[in-house]
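Single-chain item
Fold in token form
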Amino acid sequence: MKKARFLKALLVAAVCGMLALAVTPPALAGLMIMPIRVAFTSRDRMQDITVINVSNNQSETYRMSWLNVAQTETGDYKRLDQPLNPEFDPETAVLFSPRQVSLPPGGKQRVRMSLRRPAGMADGEYRVHLYLKNTSRHNAGSMSMNIDGPEGQASANIGMGMNVGIAVPVIVRQGTYDGTASIGAPRFIPASADGKKPPLIEFTIERGGKFSTIGNVMVYWTPPDGGKEILIARRNAVNIFHEVPRRLMKIPLKVGRVAGGTIRIVFEGDGPDKGITFDDKKFPVGG
């Protein structure tokens, strides 16, 4: 009994210490948010998101507040007790309204944001997350938190006796964008002999500059006979935020077997970085 209580306490502590942001588009327990991130570039003063209740038969109420988290190299997030960057806290400069929404099934609400950019703001990137917590009475007492696996594994739902929530990054950029990213250390891992585990591609994305890099990863394979290049994997919403120098990536491939030929990995910008090809790298695959 003592061991069971200890393991339960350990699990709760671990989950409370980590916040995983939902994948594209953020949808959790009847809630969807579009777009999946908010970015104020140097010229932006106004932005908005749309909150949608995708439930078929349940009204939902969501209360919004700020949340500070830091990214890790595996793509997980750790909750912070202070602003991510002490030089500027976006929470003090970004106003949003409304702060609570009640939506019928299929209902939607636009949340408007305005930025009061301080004079003399230092060049760089600053971030906070807008956290939407489900406060509906029928949802009290149960939580399904989306824990996004660091290597693209399936998400796990963990009941914790809390309300369901979802977080959206709100990014403030100041100055000329200088974000760079390069793909390194690619490694192909064949499928397991019993066919239960698909082939994987492992690699790193090394980030440079003051700003984050935000985009999508595509993996292509060209067969050894020189046939047509095939898209064999895609990972959207890959963020390498400014607090980490790299992301460690491991992506399952959508083919049963890759033998010989060439694999090409492309990291293209999305959102505020749309139109940028950060890196495009090829490497041979052994027999």
Notes: The first strand starts at residue 27 and ends at 28.
